[in-house]
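Review form for a predicted model. The reviewer records the input and the model, then writes brief findings.
Reviewer: anonymous (R2)
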Amino acid sequence: MKILFVSSGNAKDGISPIVRNQGQSLMNQGIIVDFFTIKGKGLWSYFIHIFVLRKYLKTNKFDIIHAHYSFASYVASLAGASPLVVSLMGSDVISNKFARLLILFFHKLFWDQAIVKSTGMYQCLGLRKVEIIPNGVNLGRFNSFDKKNCQVKLGWNNEKRHILFASDPGRAEKNFSLARMSMELLKRDYEIVVQILKDVPHEDIPIYMNASDVLILSSLHEGSPNVIKEAMACNCPIVTTNVGDVKWVLDNTDGCYISSFDPKEYVEKIKLALEFSEKNGRTKGRDRIIELGLDSVTISKKIISIYQKVLSA
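Model under review:
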């Protein structure tokens, strides 16, 4: 089976690590995966790539075209990609009413199958031909390592508490203001250092997670945040707002906490996570990820079954 992934190519390393890793997991299952990337930001770049992709598809044949993120799906749709599977990846889908209407329009006219990442996305969109398949975690890469060794590798002071903010503070939906206010309150009781997970090579992220005492997410909305699943796979204590599917993923995992957007509650949950980290070390989040079947191998097999269903329709 030969698949073409269509996605933005504007991440630091070109293709988003989430998209690249999903492609690699499919290749590990014997699927041939090629990548078509949309480079350049703004509507004009996406518009131009409609014609670039149309020309590319005339000379290159694929069993399935799989577009990731809504704007890439519009490019693939208007370029005549068929059969077309679309993965809607996250928060823009939930937060923007116009985006939802646009998705409904393209879904009805062009898409053979849609994939969403969480039950919340499914309920919000109300699409017909849709499957809920979260992104998987590479359990070979995201594993539990010795915290002190990881701190030495990063040059972190092991006498302080390290709080890992799991997003780019410059993105409004990541709600860094909540984290910042909470850190100011937390500094009254702890010697902390706030570490930012931004522009970190994907292969190094497990070191940061294992070096940290707590990973925090303060987003206003998410689809199915992969960073939470990756931190779980590293057995890292977590504090997060109740976004996407985090309640389902965390469940009752000791050392992992869900908070409201109240800074005082957020701080109290971080204190609980720090106390857990000091007393117990690491969580059993990895066991939860395995229990849910969120490893990349299981997820890749589900995606392949989607391809087979589309081809047999």
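Findings: The mean pLDDT is 92.
Further findings: The longest helix spans residues 263-280.
Recommendation: see findings above.
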